[in-house]
Structures are given as C-alpha cells and as structure tokens.
Design goal:
single chain, alpha+beta, two-stranded antiparallel ribbon, two-stranded parallel sheet, about 20% strand
Length: about 80
C-alpha cells in the first residue's frame, strides 16, 4: 500500500562505503529505515530477515540499516 500521509521527515545518513544517503533521493521508491544496535541480540537476529527481504524485493526497494549503538557516532569529547 503506498504511503498516504505527509512526506517523510528529512533524513540524511553517512555511509561507511561512500557518500551520504539522503531519504529525499529515494522519493517514490519503497524504503525501510531500520534502527539497530550491534549489542542488541534481537536486532542482530533481525538482520537475517532484512537480508532475506532485500533478496525478495530486489532492486526495487532500499533498506537503510542505521547503527545507533555505542561507537556509532563520533564522541565530540575525544580528539
């Protein structure tokens, strides 16, 4: 079912393998944004399901997995 509410809020994410991903660049395509933490066992288990879903969806959809656990963001107190 297509999204029928207001536009998604702005979201730009740095990538480990290249330029940032901006949700606005994916407008009109199915997108799943998955927030997880590497220390969270259920979150890690979900990754296999997301991988299987990505296989089923093919190139028609995008899954953005966002690590929010310790070390995911630079510590401004550290040089």
């Amino acid at each position: 079912m297509p999204w029928s509410a207001a536009a998604a809020p702005p979201l730009a994410l740095d990538r480990l393998d290249g330029p940032a991903s901006d949700l606005a660049d994916l407008r009109g395509r199915p997108v799943i944004v998955h927030f997880f933490a590497t220390w969270c066992a259920p979150c890690v288990e979900e990754m296999a399901s997301l991988d299987a879903l990505a296989e089923r969806l093919g190139t028609g959809a995008t899954i953005l997995a966002v690590n929010v656990g310790p070390g995911a963001f630079p510590d401004p107190a550290r040089p």
